[in-house]
Structures are given as C-alpha cells and as structure tokens.
Design a protein that fits this description.
126 residues, alpha+beta, 2 helices
Amino acid sequence: MLQVLYSGATKELELSGTRQGLLTLGHLLRGKAGSCDLAESPHPFPYERSLSTIAFREDPERDTASIVTEDQALRIQGGRKALDLLADNIEGFASEADPSDHRHVDSPACDYIAPESDPLVIAFMR
C-alpha cells in the first residue's frame, strides 16, 4: 500500500507506504513505464491533498529524474541510471529504516534528481 500527500504551498510531496509497498514501487521503477494506484487519505494534514496515481516512464534523453505533480498524479520520468538510483533509494529506505524514519529525495542533495522536481520525502505509512 502506498499514498502520496501534496502541499500546494511548498510543492512538497510525501510518499509513504508499507515496507512491501515501497519495495514494490522500487521494483516497478526499474521497468520502462508503468503506473500504480494510490490509497487516498481523507485527512492529509499537514499536507493539503492526496494524489491518486503514480505514473513513470523511462526517457533515454535525460540524465536525471524529474518528480512533478500534475493534477492528481505524481509523474516520474528520467534516464535509466537516474530511475535506478531513485529505486535504490526507495528500496534501501524500505529495507533498512526504522518505522519513525524518513528520507529526503530532492535536488540538489541528490544529483540524479532534476532541479525542477518537487521536493520528495519518503516515509512509512502512519
């Protein structure tokens, strides 16, 4: 199970899920393209709303991964190496983090994330 919460004011995203849900997302990101439905939160506080879908695709023309919100979807696209690094980051967090931990995945801290990307926090579902 996964959910993505979004704040329009800060453009920050929180991707949260169960360990298995996050591991599955990491595996999916290693494919060429795909999508998955998200659990929606009726009370997304401190965020403003829940998104309903993650859609991703490989773009061989890019060196980085772009993570942006469009309507009710989180859209991820990027070069294979960048998508694999994002998948590694998600899978590593899911495998090793304590339930209270979180991880920031954004530019410029992660050089494989495109500067136009929305700030992303990975966490376990509360």
